[in-house]
Amino acid sequence: MATPMFRFDPVELPPEALVLRAEVRDFLKEHQHLMGFSKSSFNRDFSRAMGKRGWIGMTWPKQYGGQERSAFERYVLIEEMLAAGAPLSAHYISDRQSGPNILRYGTEEQKQFFCPKIVAGELTFCIGMSEPNSGSDVSATRTRALKVDGGYKINGSKLWTSNAHRSDYAILFCKMTGGGYDETDRHAGATQFLLEMKTPGVDVRPVLNLLGEHHFNEIFLTDVFVPDDRLLGKEGNGWNQLTSELAFERSAPDRFLVLFQMLREMVRMAGPTPDKATAAALGKLISQLATLRSMSLSIAGMLHEGLQPNNESAVVKDLGTRYEQDIPVVARQLFPTEPELEAVETYVSMIARSTMNAPRLSIQGGTREILRGIIARGLGLR
Amino acid sequence: MAIRDETRMLLDSMTRLFEDKSTKQVIDRAETGEFASSLWDVVAETGVPLAALPESAGGADAEWSDLYAVLRVAGRFSVPLPLAETMLAGWVASSAGLELSDGAMTVGPVIGSDRLSLVRDGNGWLLSGKASRIPYASHVARTVLIADGPDGEMAVALDGTGDAEVTPGKNIANESRDTLVFTRARLAADAVGSLGRGVSRGGLYRRGALARATMMSGALERAMDLAVGYAQERVQFGRPISKFQVVQQNLAVLAGQTAAAVAAANLGIEALGKADAEHETFLIGVAKTRVGEAATLACEIAHQVHGAIGFTKEYALQLSTRRLWSWREEFGSDPEWAARVGSFACANGADGLWEMLTS
Q1: Nearest residue, CB atoms, A264 vs list B1, B290, B350
Q2: Are residues B218 and B338 located together in one domain of the fold?
């Protein structure tokens, strides 16, 4: 066949991953009181406890605090945590993309400085990428860095930055001003910095989401000084670095396991002997989930082999968000209720939260349209 | 996870064979009701139809996973033969020590509610009941059926269709689907045998469903290949339609559904022989459900991208889409299997759901 096909070869988990699964389940039982759909997802103590177990940065080299464990073990850890609704926010971005980005492009000093702290659960990163006029079009970024004596002076703003108000560092994406970069090249001069959030000139303000909750932030950057040793990678290489960072982001199983607890609740409500229509509606969702999981595991296998499954990750994220957005739609058909966020009944508050959260899923981490554009490029269409 | 070399070689050679021999002319002709005997002869010569049998029974002890992979390729090329049926007939008949045929075989029941029964008649047996929509029954050398005997399920092997009253039928891909009715049909003692371990009517139905799901995943690959290729050739408004974002987005969805279908079919294949019967049912149910869903969405997009040409008999897309629309209903439709998956999950309980998905 002429058309490139996206391959998701089946993967069998190695025995050590199964041993780890049992350990993680025991750990989750001990921390049961912190789990749940509506509990805060940010819990520093939980992250520290995971760090003690060696479960943050677990695939990283030992010299930077990692455990050199396999992509499969990390996959099992993450899927167990997500399915249980564990509070991962304090370390999740650091573990998933900031740390790997530093390990790939950082200096020896940066690796030594950041990675062990991340691994201990002590360092929260946010992603300083989107801006008011730069959403899907990342290259439209207006934040500018000017080379000055001993470092860089940065001006601009960032928007939609999740957890910025609780983060220690941001990986800041911006463009160089001056330096002879070709202004007509949309990716020229792109540069990433490791920005300490308490640097003078960094002003973080909340942006409430439609649930009335504070996850997003706006960051204003006014004459912010970043020293030379906090440049990440190479000046002007930011676009390539960002692309590989986003590949880490999109290959994670978090794109289809966030609502697992709601699916489980729906199975509970259906009871042991549901009518055929109810069983079929649930069976369709479960079949989608089982398939997504197998595809995601296959991606872990590709990462394990050192491949960069960017197209495959885009496919899984696109299918995964569709599945998660369908869950509240199916739920309201099977078990109608008026949604209420603060309801005592678990299901009623779940349907409220999942309905209101649904639009976010196909926007964050690359909109549905952007992902399908990536897939189309993978098919050789653009 | 790496595909074994021998599997790769088998798939490459079967791909070449089907590409070469299962042409549109051959398929069109088979659709008129004439059995594709020359194509069958070439396929039979490879040994693939009975390869799963032990060497002692004339097979090659081949892995079922490899044979299902061949079925995917057969689905890709719309191969108009009872290939899956012959494999499964061999599985049932050889487990019961019944004589096989060198020619094409078929198998049944293929409808969940159809029942056949056997009663003793001296040294032999009397077979009664109905087996509907048996693939290629009018054309095969042997029909292998599972019937209820006095002490449980038994296998029956008939020359041709034996003494059945045959009502020919076909699916919308013009593959023959014939209904067999037996009224106290007399069978010799050696035409009936006890089923071997692990073989049952339920097991046959599961393997049949998985065969269709796997063939569908191949047909989806073909539909996608045609759609992507056509979009790059067809020029409108001064450029190939593949350059329009709205077309690209649709093709991206088609690619995602196709990839999901292949992955889902593989889940079922991996379960074969490893999982217990319940878990095998669950994973094959996942496969038939997910592939059926993908087929519905993908056929719509593949046709939309093709415009009017895809709606003609002349153009090849319909060979794949009419098979997808047929196969998604065979051995249990996706809603039927979804209900089975859902019922299984509910009976298992909410707190066992995660364990069920990860074991």
Answers
A1: B350
A2: yes
| Res B193 pLDDT > 50 | yes
Q: Cα angle at B279 between A258 and B286, to 5 degrees? A: 55
Task: Please report the ipTM that was assigned to this predicted complex.
Answer: 0.96
Domain boundary among A63, A97, A123: A123
Nearest chain B residue (CA) to A323:
B290
Q: Assign residue A55 a region: left if phi > 0, alpha if psi is -120 to 50, beta otherwise?
A: alpha
Which of chain B's residues have a Cβ under 8 Å away from the Cβ of A287? Answer: 264, 285-287, 289-290, 293, 338, 341
Give the pLDDT score at A38. Answer: 66
d(Cα A310, Cα A378) in Å, to the nearest integer?
9
Q: Taking CB atoms and an 8 Å cutoff, what residues of chain A touch B293?
A: 284, 287-288
What is the mean predicted confidence (pLDDT) over B260-278? 91
Give domain status of residue A10, yes or no. Answer: no
Block residue for tokens 């048996």: B134
Is A366 in the same domain as A337? yes
pLDDT band at B247 (very low <50, low <70, confident <90, very high): very high
- What is the CB neighbour count within 10 angstroms for residue B305? 23
Chain A residues with CB inside 8 Å of B272's CB?
none
Considering only CB atoms, which chain A residues are within 8 Å of B269? 10
Q: What is the CATH number of the domain that holds A139?
A: 2.40.110.10
Residue pair A118/A98 in contact (Cβ under 8 Å)? The answer is yes
- Shared-domain flag, residues B205 and B332: yes
Q: What is the pLDDT of residue B1?
A: 42
What's the structural domain count of chain B? 3
* Per-residue pLDDT tens over the stretch A213-268: 999 999 999 999 999 999 999 999 999 999 888 877 776 778 899 999 999 999 99
Chain B interface, best mutation among A37, A80, A291, by max B CB count within 10 A = A291
Question: Has residue B2 been placed in a domain?
Answer: yes
- In which domain, by residue range, is A153 found? 127-238
Domains: count for chain A: 3
Average pLDDT over residues B305-313: 97
B251 touching chain A per CB within 8 A: yes
- Partner-chain contact B255 A271, CB within 8 Å: no
Range of the domain at B230: 201-358
Same domain, A279 and A345: yes
Contact B259 A295 (CB under 8 A): yes
CB contact at 8 A, B231 and B179: no
Q: Looking at the predicted structure, is the pLDDT value of residue A104 above 50?
A: yes
Q: Say whether pTM exceeds 0.90.
A: yes
The packing angle between helices B277-306 and A276-304, to 10°, is 80
- Cα–Cα distance, A76 to A210 (Å, whole number): 32
Residue numbers in B near A381 (CB within 8 A):
228, 231-232, 242-243, 248, 251
Mean pLDDT of B8-26: 97
The answer on pLDDT for A142 being more than 50 is: yes
Q: Is the pLDDT of residue A82 over 60?
A: yes
Q: How far is B311 from chain A (nearest CA, A)?
A: 22
Task: Label each residue of A46-67 as H, E or C.
Answer: HHHHHHHCCCCCCCCCHHHCCC
B216 and B305 co-located in one domain: yes
The answer to whether residues A162 and A261 belong to one domain is no
